[in-house]
Amino acid sequence: xxxxxxxxxxxxxxxxxxxxxxxxxxxxxxxxxxxxxxxxxxxxxxxxxxxxxxxxxxxxxxxxxxxxxxxxxxxxxxxxxxxxxxxxxxxxxxxxxxxxxxxxxxxxxxxxxxxxxxxxxxxxxxxxxxxxxxxxxxxxxxxxxxxxxxxxxxxxxxxxxxxxxxxxxxxxxxxxxxxxxxxxxxxxxxxxxxxxxxxxxxxxxxxxxx
Length: 210
Ligand SMILES: [Zn+2]
Prior knowledge:
Elements: H1 13-29, H2 39-44, E1 53-58, H3 65-68, E2 76-81, H4 88-99, E3 105-111, H5 115-126, H6 134-150, H7 156-174, H8 176-183, E4 188-194, E5 201-207
Parallel strand pairs: 1-2, 1-3, 3-4
Antiparallel strand pairs: 4-5
Helix pairs in contact: 5-6, 6-7, 7-8
The chain binds zinc ion (ZN).
């Protein structure tokens, strides 16, 4: 990883979300452009990177960030954990992208039928916890499951959406650096849910100006 060059103009959070939406629309329609995936692009990036967004999403194999937004090399900084749970390494990666790479948009990406969210719902329902480090995943999703239940939301997909919203809030609650970047208008955090069947990414929450 190398630093962002100060010479390149930084797009606004709204500009970036528009570009990602356009790429997702191409992916949904099946008319993808596969931009920035050739040898010339690869060569142009050897001295640095200026990604337009961070995508912090679930590790699910069907949620490949560059594919679903039809982008290429150097376009997005990607952080993924099962159930897009936050830990210190995730927050460090997000802070790096905002403070060093000057990325103007953080996208929290969840998806329907998420196995990690389903596991957390089952754990809450049965009052049992998984063994090993999977327990850590479930424990980090459980507050979102409880928040969904308090609102009468009971399906997996409703709980996924609530978990995405909760995750957007938690990022600025836990990271002072990102909170300040949002306050200064240097970045924004948005929550997006993805539909596996249609391939569509829908905006469900925002923190900051988008
Ligand atoms: Zn998932």
